[in-house]
Structures are given as structure tokens and as C-alpha cells.
Backbone:
């Protein structure tokens, strides 16, 4: 590959990390000046701010009125764990997994949640499991969008309207970027630090009416830790869904979440965020189509994420290297881009194969992605000069 000219224009915001993700355009620390720091999160005014996060989240997502919304500890991970420990065990369950985070929920299934009648439906990185294998009589745990593989379910058509089991959906890199069929989903989880560009450490738990019914009519066969507890004596702890967070919450993080939600509202709400993610995806999609040295890890175009844009490097000489050497090349490529101020944190997750992962959620500007791709071409040409045989 011949050398490419060094681009003259840098992205205005080179932060393309897949988590924590880029702040909303124009963000500065001044956005947090009104945070009620040093106040009890249970006092009247701080509690009102927490409740405002819940109400604004409901609005921007377009949730049905019968969904409960809670802020929970430990980010999306905590929200998924809470759902599994509180709701599973009433009937058989299946886990769909095709990337790292789906595998994390399988670990709980196989080592912690016992006894549990379960089956695992797997697919390799880059593919989806055969969704036709799912059994509507079973509960189902799955990610909407595989953050470490860039593979997502294309829609909710595979989920039966007449299902007996619950659907528990980890949607942390899916919400505000893909259309969510709420009537097909009984539990949905996500975190502020993905699509909203918020601070880490807190998750959102969305509980539909079928999941609420389960809480009121079933006691799990294992002890449920306090941090995961949503019901007591088969009675829902409603305070959790009214802003009475299970543990102490950061009022700085709450203020930041409110700032992000107000920005989402100002641009047109959830639909506008989905549109921004789609426009961002198109920039990378068009670049991949004309670029011979990369391809999407997701093989089927219908399953390609709009947020976690995972790319494989296809050069023959690169593919012939062992994994350690390929990681060395990716490290050299990403360090070069960081040194130039063109892109930060765009290597793929360590659980995936060596490649690139670029966040395309709605807080990223399309113009920054357009400015990024010439830098990718330039950096790869430099890598080829230095490493190709």
C-alpha cells in the first residue's frame, strides 16, 4: 500500500470510545455547576432531581405508561444482575450469546444461579444465533446490541407476542440508537455512560408489566442480595421506582444525566438520537465499502450495530500473523492516532479479535467521523510501510 498524505483537519472531538462514551456536543464542566453536592439524596430537592432523571428518561425513550423505571447501582451490569437474580427461576430460561457481555450473563447462569433449568444458544463473533431456536415458553436473556462484536438483533419480530417467558434485554449500547419494540421486552437495562455520554457507575432498569407480575407472584430459589432486591415478600419495593435509590447516588452524576437528557430533548428526543446514530453509521459504512483493508465484523448488514462499529482488518499479511503480533499492530495504529489527536480508544475489546471499534452513538458528531476516516487511511498506510513484509 502506497503512503497516504497526512490529513490537515482533525476531528473537533476525537473521543470515539465505546464506554464511557463522548459527552454531548458543547459539554463542559460548567454543566454541573448546579449539582446538589453535599446534600442527602433523600432530601426533597435532591430527590426531585433524581425523579426528574426518571421522568425525562421515560419521555425520551417513549416508554409505555405501564413500565416502571429505576436508577440502580453498578451501571448496566448491576441492572442486568438485578433482573436475573430477582426474576429468574420461575421457569426454564435460555441465554442468547454472541459476544463478551452475553457470555458474562452465562457465567452467572452456570456458576451462581442454581438450580436453574437453562440452555445456552451461542454464535461466534460476527454472527447471531439462530433466533428461530428460541422457545417462547422459556425466559430469555440477551443483549440487543453486542458492544464487543458490533452485532445486534435486527428487530423484535423473532419474539413471540404470545410468549409465556420473560424477555430480559441488556440494551446498554442499543437504546437511543435503535428502534426498541417495547411491547416485546419485559425488562430492559442500560447505562448513562453509553448512548447519553453520561457518567459511569449507575444503571437504568425498565420493568414491564409482565416482569412486575412475576415479582408479585414468585420468590427466587436463591438468596437475593440487598443490592439486587426489587421485592419483599412478593411485594414490589415501589420506592426504587420513585427515586429512592437502593444505595447512595452521586448528585454530580445525576446532574450530568439531566444535562444529557435536556440536550436530547432539545434536538428532538429519542427519534433524533436514533437518526444521528444512523447518520453516523452511514459515514463508516460508506468508508468500509470503498476501503480494501477493513470490513465489518458483523457479516450480515441487517445485524450491524449503529453504535459499536466493530471492524476487522483484512490485509493478507496482517491476517497471517499470530494474535499477539496482530494486537501489536493494532496497538501501534491506535497509539499513532492518539499521538496525532485524531482518535482515542478505538481498539476492539480484548475479548474480540484484534481490530478497530469506533463509537457512533448520537453524542458523536457526524462531521467528526467524516474527519476521522482520512486519518484511518493515513495511519494504516504508515503501518504498512513499517510492518508489511
Residues:
Amino acid at each position: 500500500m502506497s503512503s497516504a498524505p497526512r490529513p490537515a483537519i482533525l476531528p473537533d472531538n476525537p473521543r470515539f470510545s465505546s464506554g464511557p462514551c463522548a459527552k454531548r456536543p458543547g459539554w463542559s464542566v460548567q454543566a454541573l455547576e448546579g449539582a446538589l453536592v453535599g446534600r442527602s439524596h433523600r432530601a426533597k430537592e435532591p430527590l426531585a432531581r433524581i425523579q426528574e432523571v426518571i421522568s425525562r428518561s421515560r419521555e425520551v425513550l417513549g416508554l409505555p405508561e405501564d413500565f416502571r423505571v429505576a436508577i440502580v447501582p453498578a451501571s448496566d451490569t448491576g441492572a442486568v444482575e438485578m433482573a436475573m437474580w430477582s426474576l429468574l427461576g420461575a421457569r426454564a430460561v435460555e441465554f442468547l450469546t454472541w459476544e463478551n457481555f452475553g457470555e458474562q450473563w452465562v457465567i452467572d447462569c452456570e456458576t451462581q444461579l442454581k438450580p436453574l433449568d437453562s440452555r445456552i444458544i451461542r454464535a461466534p463473533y460476527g454472527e447471531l444465533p439462530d433466533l428461530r431456536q428460541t422457545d417462547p415458553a422459556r425466559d430469555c436473556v440477551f443483549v440487543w446490541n453486542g458492544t464487543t462484536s458490533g452485532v445486534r438483533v435486527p428487530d423484535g419480530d423473532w419474539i413471540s407476542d404470545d410468549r409465556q417467558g420473560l424477555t430480559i434485554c441488556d440494551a446498554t449500547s442499543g437504546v437511543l440508537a435503535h428502534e426498541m419494540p417495547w411491547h416485546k421486552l419485559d425488562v430492559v437495562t442500560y447505562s448513562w455512560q453509553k448512548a447519553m455520554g453520561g457518567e459511569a457507575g449507575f444503571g437504568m432498569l425498565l420493568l414491564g408489566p409482565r416482569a412486575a407480575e412475576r415479582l408479585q407472584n414468585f420468590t427466587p430459589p436463591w438468596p437475593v442480595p440487598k443490592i439486587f432486591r426489587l421485592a419483599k415478600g412478593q411485594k414490589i419495593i415501589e420506592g426504587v421506582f420513585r427515586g429512592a435509590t437502593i444505595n447512595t447516588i452521586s448528585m454530580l452524576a445525576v446532574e450530568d444525566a439531566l444535562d444529557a437528557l435536556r440536550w436530547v430533548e432539545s434536538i428532538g428526543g429519542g427519534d433524533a438520537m436514533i437518526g444521528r446514530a444512523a447518520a453516523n453509521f452511514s459515514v463508516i459504512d460508506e468508508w468500509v465499502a470503498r476501503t480494501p483493508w477493513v470490513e465489518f465484523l458483523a457479516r450480515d448488514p441487517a445485524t450491524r450495530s449503529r453504535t459499536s462499529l466493530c471492524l476487522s482488518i483484512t490485509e493478507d499479511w496482517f491476517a497471517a500473523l499470530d494474535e499477539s503480533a496482530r494486537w501489536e499492530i493494532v496497538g501501534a495504529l491506535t497509539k499513532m492516532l492518539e499521538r496525532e489527536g485524531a482518535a482515542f480508544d478505538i481498539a476492539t475489546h480484548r475479548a474480540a479479535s484484534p481490530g478497530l471499534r469506533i463509537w457512533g452513538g448520537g453524542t458523536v458528531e457526524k462531521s467528526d467521523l467524516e474527519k476521522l476516516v482520512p486519518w484511518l487511511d493515513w495511519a494504516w498506510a504508515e503501518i504498512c510501510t513499517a510492518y508489511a513484509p
Summary: The chain is about 35% helix and 15% strand. The radius of gyration is 21 Å. Residues 273 and 362 are 5 Å apart (CA to CA).
